[in-house]
Amino acid sequence: MPGYDVPGWFVLRARRHAERITGLDEAELASFARRTRDLVAAVTEVTGAPATYLMVFGENHPHFHVLVTARGEHVPADRRNGNILRLRTEHADPEAAARLVPAVRRAYKRLAGEGAYPQSA
After folding, report:
1. DSSP label of 16
2. 27: helix, coil or strand?
3. Other Cβ atoms within 10 Å of 44 Cβ, number
4. For residue 119, what pLDDT band results from cuts at 50, 70 and 90?
5. CB burial of residue 65 (10 Å; 0-12, 13-18, 19+)
6. Closest CA to 6 of 64, 63, 59, 68
7. Tens digits of residue pLDDT in 67-99
8. Residue 1 has pLDDT above 80, yes or no
9. CB atoms within 10 A of CB 55
10. Residue 47 contacts residue 72 (beta carbons within 8 Å)
């Protein structure tokens, strides 16, 4: 998404228009949750990030989406948690962000296909 092209940042959107998570039906919600889990796992694996954030806002773009942001060790304390959004301009690098896509795609397909997660008790 333009303006969020930081390496390790990905946007996951609902296929149809829904303004909030509450606009998804049960099947969409289940699918979105699985895809979000698998994307977070793939981004974390490929980037080696010690933390990967999942953020939902919806004020500026009235279409339900989440922002997945890998937070590397190099990110200073004053740019962690919600302050990571300040990196939008400080670390924007569309080419480097695009170079991560194939590796994240491969990891995503492997993780989503394997059912690589333990079932909760």
Report:
1. S
2. helix
3. 19
4. very low
5. middle
6. 68
7. 999 999 999 899 999 899 999 998 999 999 999
8. no
9. 13
10. yes
